Amino acid sequence: MNSYPNDGKFGKFGGRYVPETLVPAIEELENNYKKLRNDAGFKRELKEYLRTFAGRPTPLYYAKTLTEYAGGARIFLKREDLLHGGAHKINNALGQALLAKRMGKKQILAETGAGQHGVATAMACACLRMRSTVYMGSKDMRRQHLNVFRMKLLGTLVIPVDSGSCTLKDAINEAIRNWITNVKDTYYLLGSAVGPHPYPVMVRDFQRVIGDEILLQMRKEYDSEPDMAVACVGGGSNAIGTFYPLLGTKTKLLGVEAAGTGLRSGMHSASLTAGRAGVLHGMMTYILQDSQGQIKEAHSISAGLDYPGVGPEHSSLKEKKRVSYTAVTDKDAIDAFLLLTKTEGIIPALESSHAVAAAVKIAKKMPKRSSIVITLSGRGDKDVQIVESYLAKGANKHV
């Protein structure tokens, strides 16, 4: 399927920092994934589910009005928001759920921040007739209550997590604790390109369909490759899925993190921009930490970006300088949310709005014949009440 780091490392990043009780489960997972990743029958079954259940391929949409607004490069949107469930998360959820079924597992465990991975997992498990349990921070449950209800409708048990910051980091901790206890018949379906090896590789492999389609569609429709590709980065699954197939091209790549209320405020989730190397959730990667090495609380108006770490392959790509990373504030993301909604009639997820904000600024400075692709990782239905509440405070009076 793709290149595979047998030591689980991307340079010095990645690896497997787990308690001894999890080692057999991780080794079982890796052995099965290595067998199936290039298995013709497995690939054919996944491709068919992606086509008929998830709705692939997704369109590459030329955003004419947004392009005219920016006045520079042609702006294209990779419409992952049109997938079943409303986000790119279904690509990975279907891949791992099929893997779990092939391994003979009876129950799926997952965690979720914005709820999109939880919904995707619930949909995949309902489709494949598997039991599912999803851990979610209580703060995120309040922010994304519509997705909580969707998961319950799909038959998933949603367990609130009240520890720590009550967000994604704490949900991952609780999911791992459950997995350690029930590892024999349970599969842990991680939602982003994070965690101990082989999760970052697996999630990248299941998400690379985004970048593969971008290359194919740009070459077929416009006889070229994009000059730049932009994607938001929390854990980084849609970004690594977008970037990985483009690494061998001349396309410039930009990942956009959440600057929250500003990098100097300390209330942000910009691990790559303002963090440093450390260990979190079984991997070596860039993380937010204080002077004593303790994990700092992350902040973003977008629940899906509210995570103090990032996928280890992104950390490696940053140090290699193959991918650039920047950060966008809550306010700029809200402005971009409103801009795309009004110019193109597309309501983006707040996660994706960070990518839109950065891309429009850059597109203004690029030649008119050049092209920039933004991956719209999800749709914004889940976020409209957050935006309404934000606007009610008068923070964006100019909109």
Question: Could you describe the 3D structure shown?
Answer:
- Helix content is 43%, strand content 18%.
- It is globular and about 55 Å long.
- A 6-stranded mixed beta sheet has the order 3-4-14-9-10-13, with helices on both faces. The chain has a 4-stranded parallel beta sheet with strand order 7-6-5-8, with helices on both faces.
- It contains 16 helices and 14 strands.
- It has helices at residues 23-36, 40-54, 64-70, 89-102, 116-128, 138-143, 145-153, 168-181, 199-207, 209-222, 237-243, 271-274, 312-320, 330-344, 350-363, 384-392; strands at residues 9-10, 13-14, 60-62, 74-79, 107-112, 131-137, 157-161, 186-188, 228-232, 252-260, 276-280, 283-287, 324-329, 371-376.
- Helix 3 crosses helix 14, helix 4 (89-102) crosses helix 5 (116-128) and helix 4 (89-102) crosses helix 9.
- The chain is an alpha/beta fold.
Structure summarized in a few sentences:
The protein is an alpha/beta fold and 399 residues long. It has helices spanning 23-36, 40-54, 64-70, 89-102, 116-128, 138-143, 145-153, 168-181, 199-207, 209-222, 237-243, 271-274, 312-320, 330-344, 350-363, 384-392; strands at 9-10, 13-14, 60-62, 74-79, 107-112, 131-137, 157-161, 186-188, 228-232, 252-260, 276-280, 283-287, 324-329, 371-376.
Give short descriptive properties of this protein.
six-stranded mixed β-sheet; 399 residues; 16 helices; single chain; alpha/beta; 14 strands
Order of helices and strands: EEHHEHEHEHEHHEHEHHEHEHEEHEHHEH
The residue ranges in which pLDDT falls below 50 over 5 or more consecutive positions are: none
Count every helix, treating DSSP H or I runs of 4 or more residues as helices.
16
The proportion of residues in beta strands is 15-25%
Q: Please report the total strand number as a whole number.
A: 14
